[in-house]
Amino acid sequence: MPESDYPDIRELHLFSDMADEHFLSLMRGAYVQNFPPQIELITEGDPSDFLHIILSGSVDLFSTWNGRETSMATVRPISTFILAATVKDAPYLMSAQTLEKSRIALIPSQDVRAVFDADGNFARAIVTELAQCYRSVVKVQKDLKLRTSLERLANYLLRKQKNAGGAAEFDLDYEKKRLASVLGMTPENLSRAFKGLQPYGVSVNGARVRIGDQEDLERFAKPNPLIDDFTT
Amino acid sequence: MPESDYPDIRELHLFSDMADEHFLSLMRGAYVQNFPPQIELITEGDPSDFLHIILSGSVDLFSTWNGRETSMATVRPISTFILAATVKDAPYLMSAQTLEKSRIALIPSQDVRAVFDADGNFARAIVTELAQCYRSVVKVQKDLKLRTSLERLANYLLRKQKNAGGAAEFDLDYEKKRLASVLGMTPENLSRAFKGLQPYGVSVNGARVRIGDQEDLERFAKPNPLIDDFTT
DNA sequence: CGCTATGTTGATCCATATCAATAAGTGTGG
DNA sequence: CCACACTTATTGATATGGATCAACATAGCG
After folding, report:
1. Number of domains in chain B
2. Which long-range contacts (CB under 8 A, 24 or more apart) does A29-33 make?
3. Does A86 share its domain with A191?
4. pLDDT truncated to tens, each residue of chain B (232 aa)?
5. Which side of chain A, N or C, has fewer Cβ within a 10 Å radius?
6. Domain named Cyclic nucleotide-binding: which ranges (chains A, B) (predicted)?
7. Do residues A167 and A116 share a domain?
8. Are residues A194 and A93 in the same domain?
9. Partner-chain contact A135 B184, CB within 8 Å
């Protein structure tokens, strides 16, 4: 891996507190690759040989069963994915494919496990990261089980708006087909759901979304920090 | 906490490898309580002051939003729950209530975090446990998004059968109302789903389930290790 | 033994999926 | 740069899974 990539990775919570020596040992065994769009990086069920770190681009995590497919999450720089499989030395539960041209670092899983044993700060960082991942999935499960698709979309838009700085207008960051799958619905239903939010001041034009009256939408969506906050 | 409870707890993966000194320090700060059925032990949103360990009985983890409620999981002895909130020092994402008379140990969260820093084996055990929890929730999410309720029930029954030792008959281990909620459906729908599985050899009488032809049911259910295996 | 909660069944309604057709983008090669 | 092909998005019509409402049965439990 080119040393120019080190600083970006070092800044991740996961690596920021570990000893230089250990960090460098991980980096020396790692390599970086550029992938074109739509490349399947990993397939669910495969052994987890590498911890992946996305440096640029974006990656879709998805799962399949019996001919059906669903998007589980989207990963964006700079972050790791499939940490749980790596530390458990267990098969991947999700597949991953690049959505666009992406630069991805690969650290051999056994190196991660070895350094984990040697570096307390790294171990602690892994715990924090895993706890975060776990809590995120629990929130998604609550979203899926407690809300209708219209409510999920409304809350999704409010979350997006929030991390777009609260602007009334912002762009969806991936295609609607994928958004539909992430939210657990069909593209047709998503299309109608956007219509269904018009009475609450939501309008869409291509990827551009406008939230005309945030409070009105919130009255409908009833966002809840225990489902919608990504920081807690 | 009475010392007689120590051995059971010590056997948990989470505590089995840590130094005696640290284990005892955790136990000294902990206490054990007997709760009657239907007691709400924790409420989602509350600060996570204690790591809970269920010693006997059973506990339902559930969440609510906007007047709706759903069962997220059931915890049985001997295991911990709400580990992620404890290590992150973040609010509980789920509420917990006893389903029956239950004996529960409470370890102050700050003790857990302190010992975590001091004991590498404990840290490693926490990582493994968290990774396991994470992967379980991912499996549930796949189950919810990729399968119909009939398919979820069929696979649930096959899993139960498996850990009942493969017997053709076994008992559901909680009331159908709760099972319905766990599987993400209404009690009425569960009742009909059991009927819907009759053509595949499933019959029910109260809590007693009989799987007449496992292979036939499997042909319908299409169980998948990446969703239904709890060990991987 | 009755009371209350749970489970079943039926009728109906609603949300969402599916199927089909069209429109609008998007990228590619001439 | 345009024309074509192909994917994505929208819209409508319809089907269906599942929820809701209501009535009744049943099982625990005091």
Report:
1. 2
2. A29/A107, A29/A108, A29/A111, A30/A1, A30/A105, A30/A106, A30/A107, A30/A108, A30/A111, A31/A1, A31/A105, A31/A106, A32/A1, A32/A2, A32/A5, A32/A103, A32/A104, A32/A105, A32/A106, A33/A103, A33/A104, A33/A106
3. no
4. 899 999 999 999 999 999 999 999 999 999 999 999 999 999 999 999 999 999 999 999 999 999 999 999 999 998 999 999 999 999 999 999 999 999 999 999 999 999 998 998 999 999 999 999 999 999 999 999 999 999 999 999 999 999 899 999 999 988 999 999 999 999 999 999 999 999 999 999 999 999 999 999 999 999 999 999 987 7
5. C
6. 14-133
7. no
8. no
9. no
